[in-house]
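Shipment paperwork, digital attachment
Item: protein structure file
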Amino acid sequence: MSALWESESFRRVAGNVWRPGGTSLTVRGLELCRKLCGLAPNGLVLDMGCGCGATLGLLRQAGYRVMGLDRQVQPEAVSAAGEDGGQIIRADVARLPLAAGSVDGLVCECVLSLLTDPPGVLRQCLRVLRPGGVLLFSDLTRRDAQGSAMPEHVRDSGQNSATCGGMQPDGIARGFSAAQGTGASCMEGARPAALWERYLRQAGFQIATYEDHSRALVELAARMVWYGETGAGGQGLSGGCSCSASGGGRKYGYGLWIAQKERA
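Attachment content:
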């Protein structure tokens, strides 16, 4: 089974931004990074899983020095990194080939749910950040009865009027292992928001804020249905499995976290 982002049908709908919310959500995240954690322009920011480089271009426009990392280097990403010191590293995000305390910021959007050891990757993230460094993290969440735990710090973005199901503070759902992602679909590796938050805290991060952007996932699913790239149940979003934005007994959302490494 090929990964969802490798699908031509998905790329026709999502363009060069292979996640819910697109660059608009990244812009929102960067605003929060600056406002809450002081991520100033000219800082060095690594985009984990940079794909075609849409976020790299956005970071450069915002005045940051950029570095991209992905398993496959796309020509568009090399161009987006620019010729003024930006670079692309071909590597596995699960084993960041960077020195400790070498970057000011990390962007990790819809990546951890694809990996087999998200807690381990978050520990790597903390290692490579400088003291006071910032992580912009967004990913799929489970919002059904089996995975409905609410994070401790909930900041409603006002965008959840059309959500992927309700959130009930039932406690962190059982049955979610750290080795859940398969690489084929971020939906297969989605966790309750409270579990993502637990991973962040256990890695050593301080959580500055959380926002629920589940509407962005609903809108992406709707566009795929509208353009005929998926069935009415949204199966195409799951890379071929039976789960969807709201189906198969599962309901999904999308969350944004801003987390910071403790200052020296």
